[in-house]
Amino acid sequence: MSEDTVHAQPQGVEQHEFSAEVGRLLDLVVHALYSEREIFLRELVANAADASDKRRFEALTDATKALPADAAIRIHPDKEARLLTISDDGAGMSRDELAKNLGTIARSGTRAFGEKLSDAKPEDRPSLIGQFGVGFYAAFMVADRVEVTSRQPGTDVAWKWSSDGKGAYTIEPATREKPGTDIVLHIKSDADDFLDAWRLRSIVRKWADHISWPITIREGDEDKSANEGTALWRKPKSEITPEQYTEFYRHIAHQFDEPYATLHWSAEGTTEFTSLLFIPGARPFDFMEQSRESKVHLHVRRMFITDEAELLPAWLRFVQGVVDTEDLPLNVSREMLQSTPVLARIRKAVTKRVVNEIRTRSKDTENAAGFAAFWENFGPIVKEGIWEDSDYRQELAGFARFRSTHGDDPVTLDDYLGRMKPGQEAIYYLTGDNPEALAASAQLEGYKARGVEVLLLSDPVDGFWPERLSSYQDKLLKNVSQSHGDLEKFEAPAPTGEAADLMALIPALKEALGDDVKDVRGTERLVGSAVVITSEGGPDLMMQRMMRRSGQTLPPNPPILELNPRHPLIRDLAARVARGESVVDYGKVLLDVARIQDGEPLPDAAAFTQKLTAILASTLA
């Protein structure tokens, strides 16, 4: 929403036009989410609770912002006037804040929101409301006009924001008896049920029963309580139903799936806290675009303090929930959060509990499909911990899952160890960008022929953690593209075809390729392919590609070109050299073929095409 166009109106009324893109987004919110209209109340009540929490927190250091004793969130349906009002005693908004907060839709990007909404299944669409910060605008699903009157504590000035959600909104001076906010919805003719107290009560019970602020609904002349108002995490587990856990998870995570795991416990001793955490059952739409910091909510004595306390490490950032303690002061500062020993102990205990839960579930053979789905969703994130967390590195590696040449099902490192060949001293792996391309890589030919299993690692983090892990159960991890000479330890199948004499070919190819290669040599790793490139003494080929993509400048580290002496093409080239013929063009094409085979970009695609065309033409002549 833009404030670029402002039309002065009588008596201090300002009119601001929506941008065309925002108008389209509002249309998407109103119509694409039509079947889930009740979520508008969930979002408005949640906003009211946030505003009340903010004022209560600010009042700790500013007495002028103290809340009234009867602070509550009040819902007032008026059937005769066709109005629904949601009021709170919270922090309120100034004129500029109304323009910014209600005049800016979807800071994550309106276009991104529209694309996600268009692609999402109907049952997944409501979760996008919370993810993209457009919850307030769900009000236009049931209202043809929305008015917001707000006043901040410590000031007598109030402001009113108003819009029909079509082309513009207005801001004007207003009056409000006490600080806080009123949201007035002019209910559409087809939304009568949202003016019935029983319907509103059922929505509050479904979505907001856990909110600690009292929520009331006007019935006749009386405001009647509509929620239990007890922090769910403070209740005994025996008094909480699975449905209540799920509702709370969906509220805090802005998701609509079932949680994969629910962890609810209280810690006693040196540091006391209560924790209610959830491992999601599905990956959020924009998960890979989110920040790496954990957003678990920190509460002190049931009061929300921050979701930036980083209560879990970045490699568990998908975990959602609440940690509540009485061992911190209510006015804890950001600096204190970073340094206090209390929070350090809480972080350690919470991390350990979550890791133990994941490890336990990884061993549950009766629910193996559930863990497989979890790993598909969040395994690439958990593996970041193998790279960056020395305290949990070996433990995470123990329950991690990997694709391998053994079959289609993911395997553990312990599975791998149980299938190692006699005398095998290393765990072999290969990294790449694509699992299908990895499975067909020429790098694997010799290992497959000898029955040696190789892990196939295609997640971006897989280029990093094996080097940091180094070994598992005293077995070194070795990249097959850097393990020259290892295959000679294993019995090979009977060779097919006569081996070429490479004594003259290798020097000829070294001369032809010059600085483009570090070395040229024969290899036992190939069976069906003529050549392959490998690396030694530095990052492997996948890591080099990743570093170049990130803009890093790498020192020269040309590949090694390895030849299959039994391949007909290599035998023919050896014969050409023996006859005194040049193999310069052949050598350059072979190197480019090996690059393509390994997913490497060609330094000069045009030159490769010309040389290959010339060779084909001479062969067919």
Automatic annotation (TrEMBL):
Residues 546-621 are annotated as: C. Residues 36-191 form the Histidine kinase/HSP90-like ATPase domain. The keyword ATP-binding applies. Residues 1-334 are annotated as: A. The keyword Nucleotidyltransferase does not apply. Keywords: ATP-binding, Chaperone, Cytoplasm, Nucleotide-binding, Stress response. It holds the Pfam family HSP90. It comes from the Bacteria. It is found in: Cytoplasm. InterPro entries: HATPase_C_sf, HATPase_dom, HSP90_C, Hsp90_fam, Hsp90_N, Ribosomal_Su5_D2-typ_SF. One of its GO terms (molecular function) is ATP-dependent protein folding chaperone. One of its GO terms (cellular component) is cytoplasm. ATP binds at residues 43, 47, 88, 93, 101, 108-109, 131-136, 181, 334. Molecular chaperone. Has ATPase activity. Homodimer. Belongs to the heat shock protein 90 family. This is Chaperone protein HtpG. It comes from Brytella acorum.
